[in-house]
Write a structure and sequence with these properties.
- This protein has 143 residues and is α+β, with helices and mostly antiparallel strands.
- The protein has one domain.
- It has 3 helices and 9 strands.
- Strands 1, 2, 3, 4, 5, 6, 7, 8 and 9 form a 9-stranded antiparallel β-sheet that branches.
């Protein structure tokens, strides 16, 4: 990882993840400072556990998909303090668009705000309950 200090907030986490694109297991482990283990039921998924990155950022879990040696997605589930709202997201990323909203099918549904880049997509998932950012995800552009 280019920066020896772990990200201290959701914005540093997102910016550093974007800087690491294209992602791989080692890069995500370096960013989060925690190992990722293969999922025994799905060899294309590598998952990490909880880790405090700083007083304002706790990673609750992480996952990256690797298919044929290339990343297919990455998601970092977080518990930021204080809550980062959609207004905060749009202040930092004004090109974000709402791409998914809860449909009432599951308590874990999220509002997803995403921006498309040349390399792919950066998205923030906000919990339906308190509308705080709880996931930062990235996926490569479809080829």
């Amino acid at each position: 990882m280019a920066n020896a200090h772990p990200p201290q907030d959701v914005w540093q986490l997102a910016e550093r993840a974007v800087e690491l694109v294209p992602l791989d297991v080692a890069k995500l482990e370096g960013l989060l400072g925690t190992p990722l283990s293969p999922n025994p039921r799905n060899p294309n998924r590598f998952e990490g556990g909880a880790r405090d990155l700083g007083p304002s950022l706790r990673v609750t879990s992480s996952v990256i998909g690797i298919v044929d040696g290339a990343w297919s997605f990455a998601a970092i589930n977080i518990d930021p303090v204080p809550c980062a709202t959609v207004d905060d997201v749009l202040r930092r990323y004004p090109d974000m668009e709402l791409v998914s909203a809860p449909q009432g099918h599951s308590p874990g549904e999220r509002f997803v705000w995403a921006a498309t880049y040349e390399w792919g997509r950066l998205a923030f998932g906000l919990s339906e309950r308190d509308q705080c950012v709880v996931t930062v995800s990235l996926e490569p552009a479809k080829r």
